[in-house]
Amino acid sequence: MQRAAQQSADVPVTHRLAVIELIVPSIEERGPVDKIALFKAFVASVVGGEWLGALPELPD
């Protein structure tokens, strides 16, 4: 077991991550709920979370 852990530690991180395929849909492929959540998260990161509550609700 220790030998397997040592061999795993010897492999560079880039080689270990190369086996993971992550598919992230584009904004256009996401639904309206995801788009609004992403927009709110972006606005909160710009103006701050406390100001986000003062903004009017987004239309559906």
From TrEMBL:
Taxonomic superkingdom: Bacteria
Protein name in the entry: Uncharacterized protein
